[in-house]
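Sharing a chain and its predicted structure for anyone who wants a worked example. Both blocks are below, sequence first, tokens second.
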Amino acid sequence: MAPKAKNANRENQLEQIIEAQRMDFEKALEEYRNANHELASFTKFPDENPNPVIRIDGDGRILYKNLSGKVLLEYLKVSDDILSPDNFTFNYSGVLDSGKDHVAEVLCGKTTYSLTFAPVVDSGFINIYGVDITALKKATEVLKQQNVELQDANKKLKVLFNMPEENPNPVVQIDVLGRIIYANQVAEEMLKEYVGDERVLEQSILGLDYSRILSTGHPQRRELVTGSNTYSLTFTPLKDGEYINIYGLDITALKKVEVDLQHHKKSNSDLEQFAYVASHDLQEPLRMVASYTQLLSKKYSGKLDAKADKYIEYAVDGAKRMQILINDLLNYSRVGTAGLNFVEIDCAVVVDRVLKIFKNEINEAGAQVQVESLPVVVGDENQLFQVFQNLIGNALKYRSDQTPVIKISARSKGPYWEFTVKDNGIGIAPVHHDHIFTIFQRLHGRSEYSGTGIGLSVTKKIIERHGGQIKVQSDLGKGADFIFTLMKEVGVI
């Protein structure tokens, strides 16, 4: 064959090889794009977040924003899709270099947001999570105003003591033994449950040493709770060294503001924890999906074998676990932020609804469920339903080889109803009694028992919002008693 013909033949073969490789490359690229599209579908949960979620790179270029984030950026007058660091007291390169979260506050119309800048150092971008702290800011302002009013009231007390009977606040005079020399009408009402016929205000009631107050000449302050009111009492020694004047001020409203403020702080802390978990711990299931999907595209393009099927199985399992984790996290965060709808609730009816849900599990396990007389309480029906659902569900899940026996009872205990959900299951070692109420704390692997380890933390949070507490009494292999209290009167913490 002539040299020219051979060269032409080689060129033709080379072109065919190049074309074949080009087609293989385009096919691999298309599958890679499809894999990325599927991966993206797993990461769209920020779109449903009612608070701003934004992602930027080290130069402030906006890579992602949900609907709330878009509204926030409009208020910040962002142009060219670049969030200028001039809006904040730090630069983005500093955030990435430190690897630590940074926090800033911004005003969006009438809403104030706390923005947490969470760096993802390996990827070179920053996730920004916004939390609505408008209510917290308002509560803080109310608290400041209350403090101003408290100071003004203390000044007025000095004037009012000259006409104690007309004073709307308590005024008392005692001697070194606590004997009441004088008390106006308001003070008589305040002290009636603490002072007997001897008319002595014992030092032990408020942890004071009257002789020390008189000898040092230094006033002492204490708080006294009587009925539904809280009083701030100032014990002021007189110059003659024999008597102490007590000036009282009703601070019930101030204490309520303080409780509300603590509630807002706790909700804010929980939301920030959720943002941290979402930006760090949820990356592992996402990486699993991405890794195995890319392996399918790279190594098994155009064919499926047993190994490829196994990779798909891993990817699907990772995605499912990720979705369950996200849903549980959202449910946990909503417990602290959702409004409570307090109504009268028949706990017997609530438990009956829960038992109907677990009817198949109860029948399959041959479980015996004993429900004693349960009271009517005031609370949020949906959240209390969750409490009984979690506790009864755990009693069925963590059963032993014995026939499961579950007992649900309640008894009156002062201002509370004390409920007990008792089982004869595998039990819990005392060393784990506190851990089990912490979010994501699991005592068993997924191969033994399903779940994310969030149920009891949700239960604890609900009960505390209703003004109660929960604890467990148990030992390994001896079943468990979950005991919780609910206030007889409406109480939200």
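Comments welcome. DSSP finds 14 helices and 17 strands in the chain.
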